[in-house]
Design brief:
This is DUF2848 domain-containing protein. The protein is mainly β and about 230 residues long. It has one domain (about 1-220): Alpha-Beta Complex (Fumarylacetoacetate hydrolase, domain 2), CATH 3.90.850.10. The chain has helices spanning about 30-45, 105-110, 110-115, 130-135, 165-170; strands at about 1-5, 15-20, 20-25, 55-60, 65, 70, 75, 80-85, 95-100, 105, 120-125, 130, 140-150, 150-160, 180-185, 200-205, 210-220. The two termini are about 30 Å apart.
């Protein structure tokens, strides 16, 4: 289990002990496009899910609010996402924050669920109450930047209308979304021509209605080579 603390816009904080961590996958709003993407990944050797959208349970200790993510090799990368945090039993305890699912791409070809359990799910330190943004949730915008050789490059950019909304999951898997649960949304395509295997990831969730933003950033820290 992991203890997380989120700062809310009104100055309050919400503390959550994560007991369940779920990663959505293939969760685009247009499932026909998702099916085409699944076919493309299959050609790269990444196994297709049995159903879409998919849902992958992840070890709860992998939810983290950190500035550095340890990795074992050079082929890991993040994914810009939103996260739904169930901080308590009341409707006002449903929080929305920014997240980045750091995934082992080498392991992904052997099993997506395995790859999700090989890296941290990094969450922002700020959050919004879902009730305060749900009416305009599709207008929220997710962007991600990577840094390589000292230069920052935009790698992902889309509104939340590209993804299934939080309400979809609240309706579909209500029995799983108990207090202490964190659900990551799944992601959308990366921009072409940008190297995802970067030294630093930064993700922003922006609300054009309130002019507020949530962000996170972390270094990708290569661990020493194993001995033996």
């Amino acid at each position: 289990m992991t203890d997380l603390v989120f700062d809310l816009p009104d100055g309050a904080t919400a503390a959550v002990t994560v007991t369940r961590l779920l990663n959505a996958g293939y969760a685009g709003r247009e499932q026909e496009e998702v099916a085409a993407h699944v076919a493309e990944l299959a050609e790269l050797g990444i196994p297709a899910p049995a159903v879409t959208p998919a849902l992958y349970p992840v070890a709860p200790y992998l939810a983290a609010q950190v500035d550095g993510v340890p990795v074992q090799h050079g082929r890991t990368s993040g994914e810009a996402e939103w996260a739904l945090v169930v901080a308590g039993p009341a409707p006002e305890d449903l929080l929305l924050t920014v997240a980045c699912d750091h995934t082992d791409r080498e392991l992904e070809v052997h099993g997506v669920a395995w790859s999700k359990n090989a890296g941290l799910d990094v969450l922002g330190r700020g959050a919004w109450r879902l009730a305060d943004v749900e009416e305009h949730v599709d207008e929220l915008r997710l962007r991600a930047w990577v840094t390589a050789d000292g230069a920052e490059h935009l790698i992902q950019d889309a509104s939340l209308a590209a993804l299934l909304p939080p309400r979809y999951w609240l309706d579909e898997i209500a029995d799983l979304l108990v207090p202490g649960t964190v659900l990551l949304s799944g992601t959308f395509a990366m921009l072409p021509g940008v190297d995802q295997f970067a030294q630093h990831w930064r993700v922003e969730l922006a609300d054009p209605v309130t002019s507020r933003t949530l962000d996170l950033g972390y270094r990708v820290e290569r661990m020493p080579e194993p001995i033996g």
